[in-house]
Amino acid sequence: AQSVTQLGSHVSVSEGALVLLRCNYSSSVPPYLFWYVQYPNQGLQLLLKYTSAATLVKGINGFEAEFKKSETSFHLTKPSAHMSDAAEYFCAVSGGFSDSSASKIIFGSGTRLSIRP
Amino acid sequence: ETGVTQSPTHLIKTRGQQVTLRCSSQSGHNTVSWYQQALGQGPQFIFQYYREEENGRGNFPPRFSGLQFPNYSSELNVNALELDDSALYLCASSLGGVKETQYFGPGTRLLVL
Description:
The structure holds two protein chains of two kinds. Chain A is mainly beta. Chain A contains no helices and eleven strands. In chain A, strand 6 and strand 7 form a beta hairpin. Chain A is globular and about 40 Å long.
């Protein structure tokens, strides 16, 4: 069965520092992987997605993620954090399910990103 | 292009009552998925509708039911509410298929007392 593990429920970085949010997945078939962001009292917004094309995926707001099959990882990075990046980030996996709902998304438990001035 | 909208934004119910939540899909999308997000957790898949038919279901009891209408808008109905049903309910619309992006609405926050 597909699953996602996000390492670290809370990450705090200084403004201008590197952001690294970790995600490992478990999948018996090639997965489709996503990162979503959720600002307080809002729904989810897609940052980026991997669908078996390039392993380095660029998203919105300067974020990118690299699919590493050997490590079953899909970590999210941003070179320089901005105060507006403070939010909850969810890694998610889709695809390869044995039932008919092939497009359901399995989410990780989330990582809250805080930015220090 | 209109995004995904949900109503109401907030709702308070008491245990045992029934609730209906509504979702309007993004224009052109024929697939709607519903998720439950408890406080401090990631969203959990409830079920999905494709062209008015249920297309898959997560680990939720039958008192969670849904409908999709010809215009692809959708409802989530929950009967016999329990305290643990308190959560943010999110709907997402897409063109269907595992590669397609699911676009999420702002959610309905349900509190069961």
